[in-house]
Amino acid sequence: MQAMVLERPGAPLRAVRIRRQAPRAGQVLVKVTACGVCRTDLHVVDGELTEPKLPIIPGHEIVGSVEIVGPGVTQFRPGDRVGIPWLGHTCGTCPYCVSQHENLCDAPRFTGYQIDGGYAEYTTAEAAYCFALPQGYSDIGAAPLLCAGLIGYRSLRMAGEAEHLGIYGFGAAAHIVAQVARHQGRSVYAFTRPGDAEAQAFARRVGCAWSGGSEDQPPAPLDSAIIFAPVGALVPKALAAVRRGGTVVLGGIHMSDIPVFPYELLWHERTIRSVANLTRDDGCEFLALAPRVPVRTEVTTYPLEDAPRALEDLRAGRFNGAAVVVP
Ligand SMILES: [Zn+2]
Ligand SMILES: [Zn+2]
To answer: Which residue in 47, 42, 76 sits closest to 59, CA to CA?
Structure first.
């Protein structure tokens, strides 16, 4: 099969032909039809996440059809459409796993990081971590739901009841979360890179009440804010924009250092919290909700061998919404 492989962090992805894996017990072999491009893939490729299996095939927003089921797989059959997310394996026995916090598992494995992912024609995955996908979405349209959507949704839950919600960094996750938040009756305020008029127009098009640059003040105090951009300097900015008792949720897996800031910004019971990974319950809940909103994903597609260009376009903010590679 054709695959895009990272041999060492910092090196460009290389197109190679490799033998596809046979599914082992509990696994499915999936023919990949679409794979979303996530900022986490950039962190893996750049070496900012330090524990990859190498070489690794990145990609953890995978849509495809089951080709072969391994021994013991009962939930899927050949031909079924499945989604494969970031959470690829958990131990099932650690204190986090046994208390409904499998996203914090002591011994997890993640797709496209420690398990070969979806920048390839085929992939294998543990069936227990795959999702059935809602009808009404094309394979390409469904791919961004699998990380931008469901980790974005977890971030939105962590933002609490906020009626006035700020979102810093208006990419794939934000454009999905904004639609869900609006469906829930909230007002969403989008913060982009200063001067990025196109992203600001895009944010208003998907339902935001206001959009501006990260330096700007929103027209109303925020009840909570979610930061999706991997920029630590946004943390004190967001704290300054949320009201007393408000929460700032950090939705990314990696962020540049957070600068020193005066305690006054945190005072009055403001909270900062990170969001790590997903649980399978998050996935089921979000994938049931998405078609009811309905969430519409805005997608730019790239052929599989152009995955490096997709990653560079993501880095430079050259598209609105999400990028998806198509084998
Ligand atoms: Zn565990
Ligand atoms: Zn992701």
So the answer is: 42
Q: Tokens 């997310």 belong to which residue?
A: 85
State how far the Cα of 228 lies from the Cα of 225, in Å rounded to an integer.
10
Q: Among candidates 245, 6, 295, which has minimal Cα distance to 134?
A: 295
What is the pTM for the complete model shown?
A: 0.96
Residues with CB under 5 A from ligand 2 (ion): 38, 40, 147
Nearest to 265 by CA among 290, 299, 226, 239: 239
What is the length of the chain?
327
Find, among 153, 129, 155, the residue nearest to 62 by Cα.
129
Summarised one tens digit per residue, pLDDT across range 160-172 is 999 999 999 999 9
Q: How far is the CA of 205 from the centre of ligand 1 (A)?
A: 41
What's the 256 CA to ligand 1 centre distance in angstroms? 28
DSSP summary character for residue 269 = T
Q: Using alpha carbons, select from 194, 188, 150 the residue that is nearest to residue 60.
A: 150
What is the distance in A from the centroid of ligand 2 to the CA of 278? 10
